[in-house]
Amino acid sequence: MVSGSALLVRQYFEEGRRPNGAVDPSRAFQPSGTLVKAVLLNGAQSLLGVDNYPGYFVTPIQDYDINQGFGELNLAHSLPLKGVNNFTAEVHDRIRIEDGAQHTYLLSVVGGCDVSGLSATLVWADPPNPNSGKSLEYSFI
């Protein structure tokens, strides 16, 4: 399921489906693996518990614990899809940051949106490129 979902996320960006999920070929690009990972993690939903077979009862669990990791994958909560959900996404891919540097992003929540629904996921790949000095490349949604 995760591999197939990752393929759909790649296709989403290759078709230019952002920021609202409608196709716009002028926005098409090849997403990095870290961006695909950020998208998959960003929309994951927490599980309610784990089934304790053979006891046939469900034990409550904590977010991000050893039972569920980041939760259940849900692409409808990961990416804007025209006619399926009603949110937008700001995506940054392959951003290089030098050792000791700081990047700041300002977001405006408008139109009666509930800020409790704001979600941000930052992903990077280790180790950094050995030819780039002390820098790191990251992606986030």
| Intertermini distance | 21 Å
Poorly predicted ranges = none
Tell me the β content.
15-25%
Q: Which sheet architecture does the biggest sheet show?
A: 3 strands, antiparallel
Give me the number of helical elements. Answer: 2
Please state the average pLDDT score: 83
Q: Please tell me the total number of domains.
A: 1
Strand order of the largest sheet: 3-5-4
Q: What share of the residues lie within helices?
A: 10-25%
Q: Report the radius of gyration as a whole number of Å.
A: 17 Å
Structural class: alpha+beta
Q: Indicate the overall shape.
A: globular
Query: What is the helix/strand order?
Result: HHEEEEE
The counted number of beta strands is: 5
Name a few traits of the molecule.
two-stranded antiparallel sheet, 2 helices, 141 residues
What does this structure look like?
This protein is of the alpha+beta class and 141 residues long. It has one domain (2-48, 60-140). It has two helices and five strands. It has helices spanning 2-14, 33-42, and strands spanning 49-51, 58-60, 92-98, 122-124, 135-140. It has a three-stranded antiparallel β-sheet, with helices on one face. Strands 1-2 form a two-stranded antiparallel ribbon. β1 and β2 (58-60) form a beta hairpin. The mean pLDDT is 83.
Describe the structure concisely.
The protein has 2 helices and 5 strands.
Element layout with pairings:
Layout: H1 2-14, H2 33-42, E1 49-51, E2 58-60, E3 92-98, E4 122-124, E5 135-140
Antiparallel strand pairs: 1-2, 3-5, 4-5
Helix pairs in contact: 1-2
